[in-house]
Amino acid sequence: MKKFWKNANGRLKLGMVITAFFMVIGFVVYYFPHTNPFTFNSYPNKLLPSGEHWLGTTSMGQDIVWLLIESIHNSLLIGLLVATVATITGVFVGLIAGFSGGAVDRVLTVITDTFIVIPSLPIMILMTSLMKGSSTVFLMAMVLAIFAWAWPSRQIRSMALSMRERDFIHTAWFSGEGTVQVVVTEILPYALTWSLSNFMNATLAAIASESSLAVLGLSPGNLISLGNMIQWARDRNAIFARQWFWVGSPIVATVLLFIGLFLLITGYNDYMSMKRGR
Amino acid sequence: MKFRKYFGLRLLTYVFTIWIGVTFIFFIPRMFPSDPVESMIGQIRARSGQMDPVEMDALRRSLRVQFGLDGSLMEQYGSFLWKGLLHFDFGPSLSSYPEPAGNIIGMYLPYTLSLSLTTTALAWIVGNVIGLLAGFRKNKRSSRILEGIAICIYPIPYFIIALVLQIVFAFILGWFPLQATINTQGNFAQWAASLFQASVLPAFAMLMVGTGWWIISMKSLSGTTAEEDFVLFARYRGLSEATIGTSYVFRNSILSQITALAMSLGGVFGGSIMTEIIFGYPGVGLVVQKAILMSDYNLILGCITISIVAISTATLIVDLIYPFIDPRIRYN
């Protein structure tokens, strides 16, 4: 770990620090005992930041800090859920396509390419607008995952194609290992390091798509994500009332989170290509 | 021969993409328990109070025909493909009944297309030029700073950039209107002036995100290409840095940028929808938002079908330009 940190480039370090900060807020601080931020009028309305309320309160008397922590938690949760489903599906489909070759590969590749170029936002709009009212975090994540697996799958397929010709795979094959065994013991460890950057990418994309849908009012109504928090503040005229902490804090949090994740992804990719080059 | 194979394969993917997309949007609403006809009848009933059950049945039947919900599932699918895909006929809009949904979309689509195509082309050109310069001399301080700025802007979703621009330039500074209004009553000059005023902020928001990505990817591509042996060889031959930059590094790096452009169009369209909604720019995004609010399924279906066709076609065009830039596909 110490060696990893020493070899890491600046981007990777900064990305890790920012992402870790958000993870701690979303999954540790979130569980500290606090007043439910959904309850209206827990506190006086429209307070400015103070020692007690670091970011003030909303016009419904909710504490903005806890509202923000709750939305960071939900956004991260959706992002990680989607990324997990998408990465597993993508690795699976990509490995099948890359290793079976022939007609199976061609069919899977056409399907994968179709899902990459298909405009996902309109279709997600259709699906979520039909689920309006009955949507849950899990359903939302499934809808987002439909369009998230194709890119990892494409990457894993090209990795599998180059992998097939490597010496150690041949060795494994000639020593009598079955296809399944080769894939699980030899390929999967490689595929997983490859998938890590896709995983983070899928997390970022899922959080972005979810917040876009939230702005359209299509995110589950009982779920407060970063996008939903921005949208609610907009709906309740926080901009016109110049309640900058209410509308501004989720914007700043989203921007920081995205820059952090993006630095993490590009930094990790650079780090891996450096490592491979050595 | 190779060109023909490339062309044929690309055309096949084009048809396949549209078919999968349209099949998706045909079957998804039918998998959900909600029925647009029943919800419309509910709305009518709520508005008009008591209604004769016989009339109600007649109304239900005629609505089913209009919404393409009569007949078996396969018949419906066939007529949806025939009418929707080939004639852009999606039935009447629910929210502005009996105006056909296709007409409404046709009215707003040019605005979206002009906004997103102009900004995409501009972002691609500007981003690639800056990226090339930054990658070609990547140790210069200015290229590091440029890349840093690009990294801080690109990952942010379109609507957040749009929202921040709106707050700063329209609300605080007051340079632009908060919500776009297009002057359709006056003469051409007034219309063009109001359109220009309404487009500045949306276009700027889309340019910021788009350019950021092309700078980042072009910088890393040209940075790698600049270290290739053939570039070193060109340098030994004594070619000028400008020649090396344009005909060696640029020509080799731009190829993957064309593929990337084709693949990014879907995302750009999504970004355009979000940007339009934030600024109230009169495009398909605004129609989609209205249709969602009113549960106008014909209009939603129409917008989505047309956007899938439009994006796939744009992607196809970009991909077909590719062989003219990469001679390997043309001559082999």
Shape of chain B: globular
The coarse overall form of chain A would be elongated
Distance between the termini of chain A: 18 Å
Number of strands of chain A: 0
Query: Helical proportion of chain A?
Result: over 70%
- Low-pLDDT runs of 5+ residues of chain B are none
Largest sheet of chain A: none
- Write down the Rg of chain A: 22 Å
The tally of helices of chain B reads 13
Share of helix of chain B, binned: over 70%
CATH class of chain A: Mainly Alpha
Instruction: Determine the oligomeric state from the structure.
Output: heterodimer
What is the CA-atom radius of gyration of chain B, in angstroms? 25 Å
Q: Number of domains in the coordinates of chain A?
A: 1
Distance between the termini of chain B: 8 Å
CATH architecture of chain A: Orthogonal Bundle
Biggest sheet character of chain B: none
Could you report the average pLDDT of chain A, rounded to the nearest whole number? 83
Name the structural class of chain B: mainly alpha
How would you describe what is shown here?
The complex is a heterodimer of chains A (278) and B (332). Chain A is mainly α. Chain A has 11 helices and no strands. In chain A, α3 (64-100) packs parallel to α11. The mean pLDDT of chain A is 83. Chain B has 332 residues and is mainly alpha-helical. Chain B is 80% helix and 0% strand. In chain B, α7 (158-172) crosses α10 and α11 packs antiparallel against α12. Chain B starts with a helix and ends with a helix. Chains A and B meet through α4, α5, α9 and α11 of A and α1, α7, α10, α11 and α12 of B.
